[in-house]
Each structure stands twice: as structure tokens, then as C-alpha cells.
Amino acid sequence: MRGAVLFNGNAETVDALIQAAAPLLLSSRHEDAAVARSRRVLLVTAAWGEGEHDEGHVKRALNSIGLPSRFEGGYDRAIANLSLLHELRGVARSSPRLMEAWQEGRRVAEMARSFYLEHNAHLIDLFRRTLAAGRREDPALTVPRLAADPIHHGSGRRLVRYTLSQQLRQALATLEANDDHLVNLLDEIERRAFDAAGLAYAPAWREARERLERRILSANTIMLFGGGLDPLLDALRFFRLRDVLAEALRRGAQIVAMSAGAMVLCERVIIYNDFSQKRRDFQLYDRGLALVRDLQLFPHCMERIQTDDPDNLAYLARRFRHHACVGLNQRSFLLFELGPHRATSVGPEDCVFVFDPEGQKLRYHKGEVVKV
Asked: Any idea where the domains of the chain sit in the sequence?
């Protein structure tokens, strides 16, 4: 793949995001010479909900860095909007049966999540109780120490330590198995719901998807903005745009993704904190588009993750151990180049953070390559 993705946690303003992303936005690596010359930018603002087309400030910011608008027939052809929600509403009006199937699938998926969370609540409580019991025996005990390979001999404290280690490891393994089960179940729910509705053969859906495909494949850069996770992810999945975006990246398109827009590109979407006064745990929310498989991104990381708690970071890295757990802030930028499979911290004002199984918060400054 020739393409690249520039990830950001949660830029303070659109102007700040575009100024930081300007070198990428003004360049091209696209194999199609006409697309490369056009520097065409496609805005994906479905996460803004009803304000999907309130993108005037984005266009002004892009104009200011040297990407001019070009109007033909009353439409800006150089800086366009994917109009995901607009297309979704069009399908809803012409094919209510499809939307009923989609809504039913969402209802069933939410039921599956509720069972998953209930099961996990018991396991997480057990995990905490196990750690607390270990610390009563040894106040200096940490998650990495307790989760390490247990000592298989001895009595007294060593036997207690062995037992608690086994219990902690079992809790982590079961949490991981629950995550895998939910991913597979959600995928099956969606497939069955849409197969039953004949989604792929519905004329309105096919016409809308073809329009979306043309917009995506003619763009030099695609910008995925943050906001509401559900409307963005649901619309992308409804139109099955994962393969189209993958093809755009193969051809050399560049994606700029922030906050929710960054999260949906991962294999899995993990949510946490949710701005609740009551402590919440990390939880698998849904499948992402899996365009970037080796990274598990956590935007707003300093706001929502207890990054000064090594046990918290060790738990996070061990539970989601198949991916590099990467934390991004407002001024953190991570450039992932798909061809060389290289991730580089490129933000001059903040680091990219990686949380490792030993509870360390590894910092990667501008120019440093992040191990994935």
C-alpha cells in the first residue's frame, strides 16, 4: 500500500489540526497522476450528526494553507463532503425495509453488549480483589509482578502468591476471550441482519454506495473528524466502506484522522471513562474498520486514562496485548505509513505514548519511530 494515515488525539481546533497536517495535505503519494495533481480533500463529518455539512470553517482553514476551493455547478469540487448521513437518510426514505433491518440489528447488538458488560463486571471485580489480596501479603506487589509466570514451589507466602497469580492470569484470559466472543458475535449479527434484508441487492443502497465509492477513490486526502462515535461508525459499516477505504490507501490516498475518526480505523474500538463521575473500565465497544491492525489507539489519553498509574497501564497493555496500545493527546501526531509499515511520532509539541505490559509509559518524540 502506498497510502498513509496521520492520527491525532483531539486537536484543540480545526485550524490547529490543519496547520499541523499541512505538510501531508499539500503533498501526494497517489498512483493516479490526476488525483495527485488535484490535491482533492474529502471531508468525513458524519460524527457531527445534524451538523454534518457545517464545514465552512474547515474549508477556510484548508484554503489558508494553500488548498483553494474550486466551484462547479454550485459545488466545491476541490474540497468535498462524503455526505455519509445525507446518503443514509436517502436510503431510509426510499428503502424503509432496509432501515428496519439495520435498526433491528443495532438493537440486538446492544443486547449482546449488555450481556458482555455484565459478565466483564464480575471479572474486573475479581481482578481487583485478587490484586488487593496480593497487596495485603506484599504492599509492593504490582500487576506485572503478579501476572508474571508464578513460582511453582514453596509454601506460606509463596503458595499464596502462586494462587493469586493464577487467579489474576485467569481473569485476564477470560476478559480477552470475552472480547473475542463479542467481536465475532457482533459480526455475525450484522451479517445475518443484512443478508436477510438483501442489502447488497437493494437499488437505493447500491446507488448510494457507488456515489460514496467514487468520492472516496477520487480523493487525494480523506479527513475523518471526531465527534459522535456511533453515527460515524454506523454509517461507515452500513455502506460497507471498509474495502473502499482500503483500496484508496492502496492507491496512495492519505487519511487524517482525529479522536473518533482515529478510533474507527483500528481493528477494535475501545471506550473508557465516558466523562462519567463514576469510575468506568476499559471496554470493547465494537469492531472498527481494521485498516490499521497493529495499533490500539486511545485519544484524549491524558484526560481519560490514569497514565500515572503503572498498574492501570499494565492492565491495559495486557488485556489488549495483540496491539500496541498508543495514547494520543491534543498535540500528539502519529504518521503511519502502510508501505514500509512504519509509525513515526511527528508532533513537534507533544509525544506519542505507548503503554507496555510492565506498566511503563513510553514516550516517542518528533521523528522517533514507534515499535508496532
From this structure: 4-92+202-370, 96-196
pLDDT for the residue numbered 48: 97
Task: Give which of 372, 334, 338, 361 is closest to 350, Cα–Cα.
Answer: 334
Please report the sign of the dihedral spanned by the C-alpha atoms of residue 131, residue 134, residue 138, residue 142: negative
- Tell me how many helices (H) and strands (E) the chain has: 13, 16
Element (H, E) at 32: none
The DSSP code for 269 is: E
Mean pLDDT for the stretch of residues 73-87:
95
3-state secondary structure (DSSP) of residue 312: helix
pLDDT digits (tens, 9 = 90+) for 221-255: 999 999 999 999 999 999 999 999 999 999 999 99
Contact of 328 with 334, CB cutoff 8 Å: yes
Q: Which residues contact 279 (CB under 8 A, 6 or more apart)?
A: none
* Residue 222 backbone dihedrals phi, psi, to 5 degrees: -115, 130
Round to whole Å and give the CA distance between 311 and 142.
6
CATH superfamily of 4-92+202-370: Class I glutamine amidotransferase (GATase) domain (3.40.50.880)
Closest CA to 41 of 54, 25, 63: 25
DSSP H or E run through 299: none
Say how far apart CA 113 and CA 173 lie, in whole Å.
19
pTM score, whole prediction: 0.93
**Most confident of the following: 12-26, 92-106, 133-147:** 12-26
Look at the block and give the residue holding cell 518528533: 366
